[in-house]
Write a structure and sequence with these properties.
- This protein has about 200 residues and is an alpha/beta fold.
- It contains four helices and nine strands; from the N terminus they run E-H-E-E-E-H-E-E-E-E-E-H-H.
- The chain has a nine-stranded mixed β-sheet with strand order 2-1-3-4-9-8-7-5-6, sandwiched between helices.
- Strand 8 and strand 9 form a beta hairpin.
- The protein starts with 19 loop residues before the first strand and ends with a helix.
- The relative contact order is 0.18.
């Protein structure tokens, strides 16, 4: 796809050696191999001694895992639903649709600004309906939450698919993953907390 876009062939676009280690929370979602490839390209590696948990599909167990945590797609809906966010059923399923979004200046995706991403959903969360302890990090033009973050815990969610080919434009998907891991990383979190307390 990068060739078709006229990009030079080389290392994955935006790839970085973040050194992050993650593990998947038990899920039977079929897209895990694709997501694992996207996470590896963003600089994270699957490891037993992981410091960050990733949920993609709704997990088999009913209890939320420990943080730091990144929830994606259905996993994000599951986590926000557990927190009390109301979900709306879309008029029709929307799979493989490109959505335009804008990141909040206060959120972990602030550097993305306006971006396009792959949207795969049957349910969604309307902007302005998140519980008080959650902050909208990005919202679509239609008014759906695309990303959110917990105000106190190290938990971030992406309701779009960063591993979709529709999220390749401007490397939005990879940049979103890198931003999420940077915020979830213990060192980065400590530095941000020090800035706020200074």
């Amino acid at each position: 796809f990068r060739v078709l876009e006229g990009a030079e062939v080389g290392p994955p676009l935006g790839a970085a050696k973040g050194g992050w280690r993650f593990r998947f929370i038990d899920s039977d979602e079929s897209a895990l191999p694709r997501l694992e490839n996207a996470l590896a390209a963003a600089g994270a590696m699957l490891a037993r001694d992981a410091t960050i948990a990733v949920i993609s599909g709704a997990p088999a167990r009913a209890t939320a895992p420990e943080v730091p945590l990144l929830a994606i797609g259905e996993g994000a809906l599951w986590l926000l639903g557990r927190a009390g966010a109301p979900t709306a059923t879309l008029a029709r399923p929307e799979f493989a649709r490109a959505v335009a979004g804008r990141a909040s200046r206060e959120g972990f995706l602030d550097e993305l600004g306006a971006f396009n991403a792959g949207w795969y959903a049957t349910r969604a969360v309307r902007a302005g309906t998140l519980p008080a302890d959650w902050l909208e990090s990005a919202v679509s033009e239609e008014g759906w939450v695309l990303a959110a973050q917990h105000r106190e815990q190290r938990a971030r969610v992406l309701l779009f698919r960063p591993d979709s080919v529709l999220s390749l434009h401007g490397a939005a998907g990879m940049r979103a993953l890198q931003a999420a891991f940077a915020w979830l990383d213990r060192g980065m979190f400590a530095r941000e907390s020090d800035k706020e307390n200074a």
